[in-house]
User: Fold this.
Amino acid sequence: MDLTRLGPEQLAVEAERLLKEYEDLSAQKLALDLTRGKPSPEQLDLSNGLESLPGEGDIRAADGTDVRNYGGGLAGLPELREIYSGFLRVPAKQLMAHDNSSLALMHDAVIHAMMFPLPGGQARWADTPGGAAFLCPVPGYDRHFSICQKFGIEMIPVPMTPDGPDLDVAERLAAEDPRIKGMWCVPKYSNPTGAIYSEETVRRLAALPAAAPDFRLFWDDAYAVHHLTDEAVPSAPILEVCEAAGHPDRVFVFGSTSKVTVAGAGVAFLGSSPANLAWLQGHLAKRTIGPDKINQLRHVRFLRDAAGVEALMAAHRRILEPKFAAVDTVLEEGLGGSGVATWTKPRGGYFVSLDVLDGCAAEVVRLAAAAGIALTPAGATFPGGHDPRDRNIRLAPTFPGLDSLEKAMRGVVTCVLLAAVSKLREEPVI
Amino acid sequence: MDLTRLGPEQLAVEAERLLKEYEDLSAQKLALDLTRGKPSPEQLDLSNGLESLPGEGDIRAADGTDVRNYGGGLAGLPELREIYSGFLRVPAKQLMAHDNSSLALMHDAVIHAMMFPLPGGQARWADTPGGAAFLCPVPGYDRHFSICQKFGIEMIPVPMTPDGPDLDVAERLAAEDPRIKGMWCVPKYSNPTGAIYSEETVRRLAALPAAAPDFRLFWDDAYAVHHLTDEAVPSAPILEVCEAAGHPDRVFVFGSTSKVTVAGAGVAFLGSSPANLAWLQGHLAKRTIGPDKINQLRHVRFLRDAAGVEALMAAHRRILEPKFAAVDTVLEEGLGGSGVATWTKPRGGYFVSLDVLDGCAAEVVRLAAAAGIALTPAGATFPGGHDPRDRNIRLAPTFPGLDSLEKAMRGVVTCVLLAAVSKLREEPVI
Assistant:
């Protein structure tokens, strides 16, 4: 039933029915959480061997380094970088393996660019006349936006398409405004839409005629190996494509094992050009003697090789695919043909992006919260937490069990319909 | 034989003898390294159980948190903070346990103070008229100085005494210059002199009449539990003393397990006032979701409690005490009464500080290097790598085996005497 085509009387009937449904929902006193992209305990159990590795006496990296001691440099264990090199499409010698957080590597790249000129740059970003700015594909990842906000970097939204950010917009903006120093990109199974950057998108980003000589792509390949279909889309070789486009220093590539092994105690990666790496490591060398090499050896022992990563991710997929299928089924049953919602069917990653009727997202989140279902705050996927159309909601289906997830999603459906009917009747139902 | 009292002919004889000795030394083609304060493999072996902890299935912190997942906040596991609280004299609730590097915590405290006003501060340190400055007790720790250098913070030397920095100097400087925003302190078994800040020093630092309202002590209690004698000097309760002096936000306390368990994969601590912690964690929350909690649980399981730390440190002492004794014995035999060298007899920590004849340190390091003995570069213990008297050399006796250490130290003695004789004769011997 397409709600947008109903007359006032039919809407009134629907409103009454939905109100009753919402009261039943509230009576269940649920306490369900779809807010963050956390792996479930069942997924974490897939890496259960990790906690007793590398094992007593196993203390040597392949090159003989005693991983327990200081030393060995900032780049991390070559054998671990080798395992991830193919997935992130960065030569192992240009890939560094650091601590447990790729977010920290992004933050530290930005904070150092604020304070020290990048290769090719004439000044520190902090000294940009008018203030530095970033292009932010929307909807996007709130923690990316928080980094910009922290440093007063203006965020300029660029609409997402199923093929990645709208390049006509990005090209025009970057070409005319030298304040634009960077762009956040989640190139595959994008957070939250699941979009996969097309080959043309990748090529145009590499060739982007940026006015700023120190423009950088912050290429957060967080879901490089996180497939939900047999397609197993490979990551784009952005470093190579940038080189070919004459912009060898354009990109910082990020990745991690956070949603491969363990979310809080994995290993993060940063890949870039030799010049960028020398710049960053030169600054980071004043910060730390080096990353936790035992944890890196632990990961080498556990993952073994690229095939080991793939086998582990196949096991993750067996847990996650039914959850994503359940979300789609409940949404289709409840909202299909309703005319008040569209949603994504991601081929990988951690999220489903739900667009409700314009002006209804905050109300849906409010209704859901009151009924015991925690959703990511409306607007979180936009810079400054402001969704100009108030319609996008990020759903994170990975953490709850399948039953809880289905229950939560049925509740979300009720809230979406209830908010839509209120909007269409131009009066609050509740 | 006091070289400084010899006449020209006697000096010539000595020079000839020493030259022969140095040639014999060179002929041994040694490859020994006394540069950095690294634990020896034997010390690292004391924590051999660590590599297989926490063990499969042991995934819960005391409060039930699944340590494998995101979440749990920035402060780290309460039970680990509890273990260290007494050693660092910081209440567990004001102590955060972070990643593997206390240097990184110092760096991040400074970088954030450069960019965001501290509690009590009216402006960011970066906006200090004339540029921010730090008081730097000398000789001191080169990595502290590197952080200042990185951010263009002027380093103002303050002479060390056996009771800590010369407070008459520090008080005068801090009182008259509002550019002085901080001071590096290694309060116990200081790097490199082994000095222990007296109660009076601690009290006067807490009460220091700093002109800058956002003045901070960077209290690097790196050697809190690293005793070499039965005295086992407890750490000063600096946080409490600052509070009592009316400066509750004055100090950041740092510590780590780097030289307790494993040097590259331990846990670092930062303790401070509630206001400072809220300020720092507010900024760090944009950088990372949290520290590696599995490694913290691993340390809880391995150390168990404060008594566990003390037992482990007693075992370290059994390895280290003979090494420090050997250094003192060789120096005493070779340089005692020579009039050209003095050195410290630390009661804990990782270093011996050797002062040679003024103007000779760089030459000693050069001679030693040419003979296959790597020493910390002369000047490294001073801001900018410049020792105005060119006399201080930091000896790090922990890493080499006892035999190698004795061999290296005998070589150092030869180099010290040779450089001294050259200096006294006012002509190079070699």
In short: The longest strand of chain A covers residues 154-161. Chain A touches chain B through 56 residues (CB under 8 Å). The two ends of chain A are 22 Å apart (CA to CA). Residues 303 and 309 of chain A are 6 Å apart (CA to CA).
